Amino acid sequence: MAFTEQYRSIQDLPGVIPVFPLAGALLLPRGQLPLNIFEPRYLKMIDDALRGERIIGMIQPDGEDAIVASQIAGETPPLCAVGCAGRITSFAETGDGRLVITLTGIARFRLKNELTTLTPYRQFEVSWDEFASDLKPGEGEEEVSRDRLLEILREYLDTHGFQMDWRAIRMSSNETLVNSLCAISPYGPREKQALLEAKTLEDRNQMLIALTERALQDLSPTDTNVQ
Predict the structure, then answer these.
(1) Which ranges in 72-199 belong to alpha helices (H)?
(2) C-alpha triplet 24, 28, 31: angle, nearest 5°
(3) Max CA-CA distance within the chain?
(4) Which of 7, 17, 199, 224 is most deeply buried (CB count within 10 A of its CB)?
(5) At what angle do helices 201-218 and 146-160 cross, to 10 degrees?
(6) Rounded to whole angstroms, what are the CA distances from 38 to 35, 83, 117, 217?
(7) Three-class SS state of 24
(8) What is this structure's pTM?
(9) Beta-sheet pairing, 32-37 with 99-114
């Protein structure tokens, strides 16, 4: 049974999860996020998760000061209200004590209360209620403006002289296409958070298109001639 089939409703998800604050990282349902873990507090978090439900919540620090504070052991900076939980679907130990893991997204969550614990990492009560549709693969795919997304993607790639596997793109579902492009997009933490919180897949798609259009408009004439 695929791991995603274990989570058919929000009742199948834990009420308390450990959270990993990381600016600019975007995990979305059924998307994948590779992580290189080396800080002792997060090595402990991964070790504990592997012994339990293998679920951790990815979330962004809320604001520039919070991003800096999140990198200091012992600091508890404010966090964005919404994150996305993932299951550890692969992991490997390195010779220098690091862990290389892959998270596969399950569903978004909203933070409720932070627990007082003895663990070096933070744990929160979370609510899944408003994101129940995240557990339905392909939810809203039929509404996605795929042609416009591919049009603006091609323009962006041509402008920057980038290459992409168009065969793989053509074979991708709308959900995979939109969420994958959001995850690898070059936008900042604020934009990534907005993409995460988009209500529907088409809302996320339209936001990605708008961000890309703005990025193209911001280029100077000199920049647009660079190949």
Answers:
(1) 146-160, 166-171, 174-184, 189-197
(2) 105
(3) 56
(4) 17
(5) 30
(6) 10, 22, 21, 39
(7) coil
(8) 0.89
(9) antiparallel
